[in-house]
Design brief:
The chain is an all-beta fold and 362 residues long. It has one domain: Neuraminidase, CATH 2.120.10.30. It has no helices and 30 strands. It has strands at residues 36-40, 45-46, 50-51, 53-54, 63-64, 67-73, 91-92, 98-103, 109-114, 121-126, 134-138, 144-147, 153-156, 162-166, 172-178, 184-190, 193-200, 210-215, 223-228, 233-240, 243-250, 258-260, 262-263, 280-288, 293-300, 305-311, 317-319, 334-339, 345-350, 356-361. The protein is globular and about 55 Å long. It starts with 35 loop residues before the first strand and ends with a strand. Mean pLDDT is 83; it is low at 1-46.
Amino acid sequence: MLLAARPHRNRGFRPELVALEGRALLSASRTRLASVPGHVQAEATRTPAVSITPIAGTTSLGRVGGYKFFNFDGPTSGTNAGTGTNININGIANNGVTVGYTIGNNGAYGNFTARPRYSRAATPLTISGAITAAAFGINSSGRVVGSDGNGNAFTLSRRGALRTFLPTGASSATAFGINDRGTIVGQETSGAVAASFLRVPGRNAQTPPRDILVTGPGGLIMANLQGINNHGLAVGFYSGGGATHGLIVNQSAAVNGAISGTAVADPTIPARAGEPGALFVFSQILGINDRGIAVGYYGDSTGSQHGFLYNTKTGQYTFLDDPSAAFNNGVEATQITGITNSGEISGFYSDAAGVFHGFVAL
């Protein structure tokens, strides 16, 4: 079985079907949390001394669904099943810079940024010295967000200044996305209580950031925001009716520091070769651009996962998998994790050996 749990980033809601991306979402009751200021740690390091490795043969596959795919492995990528360029690529900025991490054969994470369509160079990121620190999002100024591996969300500037933070009253948090205005989305916990947050930066250095509590439709606390565009439209997922569904949240709809998101209709999944009789199980939306085109993936009853694009204006889904994705023990996977304003997408897929690889496509 190629699907592997990630301890702090589990996107799945059911133990029998753990999402490859593993973005944490916990059950909780509805509670408003109080504020904890951020703090600056020692600078993280960015040393441009490594590179990504193109995967032979994949650049000559032609266009699939109108997209030309470029598949690659990140630095220190593992070669065993369940390792590789996994959970990568997590995000892509509007200038085409991607961020994510590899998993080595020893289980260690290797965070990095790269611009795969333009250069083979990659910049490794060392975050807090924690081997489980994970980079999840990036914006056009090069600011990276994620989890520091010690229970804190972080922002990392292009120059290497690392700032960890906890949203309003949280005991732990992970940041999953950031837009070009500096607004951050993610998940927070306070004891046994979990919620999503949207952090709006202050107007200047003297103005503190403003944290907004985000719930699912009808106030369901089990919601998780993953990405946000420059118009304040955020996307993610929530749990309801025993399944996971897409979620859209408009930042401007906040009232008294809270927003209840809007449910996205589940996709009607297509028939797929090798998955006879497969039924829809869950979907998760992971990124959105300024044109309102969102991306994500769905899971079906065979255990496989497939990428999609979703037009938030028309409600139309377009299904798209990496052409090199292959079955391993009856399961295949593609996740689309980010999209730029120009329409370039990013994500990762699994091969016939159960190893993960990153991709960008345009």
